[in-house]
Amino acid sequence: MATRIAHLFTRLAQERRKGLIAYLTAGDPSPEHTPRLVAALERGGADLIELGVPFSDPIADGPVIQRAGYRSLAAGTTLARVLEMAARIRKTSEVPLLLFTYLNPVVRFGFDRLALEAKAAGIDGVLLTDASVEEAAPYLPPLRAAGLDTVFLGAPTSTSRRLKLVAEYSTGFVYLVSRTGVTGEQTALSDSIGPLVAAMRAVTDLPLAVGFGISRPEHVAEVARTADAVVVGSAIVRLIEERAALPSLEADLEAFTRELKRPLLEVRP
Amino acid sequence: MLISEPDAGGHFGVYGGRYVPEVLMSPLEELETAYREARQDPAFHEELDHLLRTYVGRPTPLYYAKRLSESLGGARIYLKREDLLHTGAHKINNALGQALLARRMGKKRIIAETGAGQHGVATATVCALFGLQCIVYMGEEDMRRQRLNVFRMRLLGAEVVGVSAGSRTLKDAISEAMRDWVTNVGTTHYLLGSVLGAHPYPAMVRDFHRVIGVESREQMLAVEGRLPHRIYACVGGGSNAIGMFHAFLSDSDVRLIGVEAGGRGAELGQHAARFSGGAPGVLHGALSYVLQDDDGQVALTHSVSAGLDYASVGPEHVRLREIGRTEYTSCQDGAALEAAQLLCRTEGIIPALESAHGLAEMIREAPRAQGEIFLLNLSGRGDKDIDIYRENLKDLDAD
Lengths: 269, 399
Known about the structure:
The complex is a heterodimer of chains A (269) and B (399).
Chain A: H1 4-14, E1 19-25, H2 33-44, E2 48-52, H3 63-74, H4 79-92, E3 97-101, H5 103-109, H6 111-121, E4 125-128, H7 133-136, H8 140-145, E5 149-151, E6 153-154, H9 160-169, E7 174-177, H10 193-201, E8 208-211, H11 217-224, E9 229-232, H12 234-243, H13 249-261
Parallel strand pairs in A: 1-2, 1-9, 2-3, 3-4, 4-5, 6-7, 7-8, 8-9
Helix pairs in contact in A: 2-4, 2-13, 4-6, 12-13
Chain B: E1 11-12, E2 15-19, H1 25-39, H2 42-56, E3 62-64, H3 66-72, E4 76-81, H4 91-104, E5 109-114, H5 118-130, E6 133-139, H6 140-145, H7 147-155, E7 159-163, H8 170-184, E8 188-190, H9 201-209, H10 211-224, E9 230-234, H11 239-245, E10 255-263, H12 274-277, E11 279-283, E12 285-290, H13 315-322, E13 326-332, H14 333-347, H15 353-365, E14 373-378, H16 386-392
């Protein structure tokens, strides 16, 4: 049973295009904003949306996404409400949705319940930020049974044994972390991207997305030379933070997304 | 014979493990390997033991608290004097062990988190001793509460970085230290200060503190010719408690009692009593008991004692409680302050507020335990807490 995520990467390959993945913290600045912001990202050309679930102790996130999480929690966001947002998005859109979450809210919610309710809400896959493949493995069967993809992270520090494990447990695609560090914009791209993509290609046929520290169209262009998709997170979340109160928020977000997407529109040989 | 060791993945029962982003998995494996090799290297133990003796001040005395015992009229009370160690608390046992390990691994930059500041001071101390760069993350609320320790760390050459996120206490300091480690993992050793975090930390930190119980057991046999009936220790992350308890795990007649911070009361957010108010959850790398709300968001905590003010607890404690070997209770701020004053006036010992929690529970039980022997791990001294004692005992501070 192929998910929207699998269909997306099949289509991108057929069209010889690379994908743009956009991250935003669900519920930032309020749960009401999220479906409209996702629509703006989609209009701007985002091929896949990562819906971040806010967590009180986001150890893998830099200041921008930390602040978004605190705003979202203050606005009353819970995992259940994120699923409601997904269901609202799904009423009008077929964009693939990946739930991007720390483990504890899901442990509390229950994996069996998440599998059923996330699927019903139109979520296509789940990425558990702070669960190694070893710890996550026992939790995966209900997600798989519900037809949800499980995406894991590969990192520049991962040994080839670990990259193999990450690939083995991932479905849909593998998310490669561009550098050792937390989420956040960088002025220059990390040198580890090329070698990491190559090392991962050697052990899997799954599509590869690269994220962390990618914030500008020129970064997107550079990363897309090797990866199948490029993830932009903090730069989007910062734009939402800076313009939350402006009437032009959605138009600005759409325009920024279009800028990020532009380098990916050229069909490659 | 009860042996409590984690499985290959670092699990005590189902608790513990390695719940971290992938970027930290290989570094944790590397640390585990380095630690295993160090453990098997006689030269490592020789240097550690030598420094524990000549620099840290081990062994610490086992002291019979005669006036305290008599004033309570029940159990005979012994104190394990970890408060007499260099830097004023048990924390240096672990800081020294991990610093030696970091040096072995060729890591020249050390980061640490601290709550009360005792672990930060111990880390700053061993970094000065070995000429290592030292950065300590500390919640801004804790910096305010433990100003003296902030200055001590700086005096010892460490950089203290204030953390303004969340509750601005230990939880947020650990999060920030983990972010630093994720970013600088190639050059940096994270010198974690309690039996918390991802494997191998809970087992490794415990091993470095195990000496507390090993010494106590020998000393008690030498003085009393028998083992104590009950052993008390405060439990924040639980490093002093596990270090004391471990040597007694197979002595099934010895009751092992951990005392958590009851804070101001039983309402979520007002205490740090994980075993009465928490539920299984994942925080900072391990599955343990976590104070949290119904949505899995980690709760804020309160304790008069910064070192106990944390939402989770060492995973081995959870396992030992599950199999019925250890028991846990809690003590509120007021009882800890009162117990500390009794120790001051009967024995001339000003305890750390953390240790005062274990003391308070022991004092509560002692009058009803005629003929029994109690042992308390007096894990730290109260010099660092003078400002808090002054704030809370205003009648002593009037001219």
